[in-house]
Design goal:
This protein is mainly α. The protein is built from 5 helices and no strands.
Length: 130
């Protein structure tokens, strides 16, 4: 038998050269990479906040203003919102069956993640840059 007899892809996906898992694998890897990155970054952030508990405002501002801390906070923000958006995207794709609601939900989640990430990054940069 030819290999074509077992091809379950639609004619459109064959024309585009996309198999059933082309996009899904990249999404899966992005979730795993952001999750792995978030473990040490979140631990660093939680320990830092605990150590800064009770510190004066100027001390916290100086901590955020440190170049290493600023970059680490910006990376944490990017990873958190990207990971959250990826996870919520999977939930919507799996459980929302109305195509219009699915597209609307995905757009809302992507927009909300972007707006919140930009807002958080702006707050960090505003503190860091004075």
């Amino acid at each position: 038998m030819s290999g074509k007899a077992f091809d379950t892809r639609s004619p459109l996906s064959r024309a585009r050269g996309l198999g059933p898992a082309k996009e899904g694998v990249a999404h899966w890897w992005a979730q795993r990479v952001t999750a792995a990155a978030l473990v040490p970054m979140t631990l660093w952030f939680v320990v830092s906040v605990i150590l800064l508990a009770g510190a004066e405002h100027a001390t916290v501002v100086a901590w955020v203003g440190s170049p290493v801390t600023t970059v680490a906070l910006l990376l944490l923000i990017a990873a958190v919102f990207h990971h959250a958006q990826l996870g919520l995207q999977v939930v919507i794709e799996d459980y929302v069956h109305n195509e219009g609601l699915k597209i609307a939900g995905l757009l809302v989640i992507k927009a909300a993640a972007l707006v919140l990430a930009i807002g958080a990054a702006f707050a960090v940069l505003r503190i860091a840059l004075g």
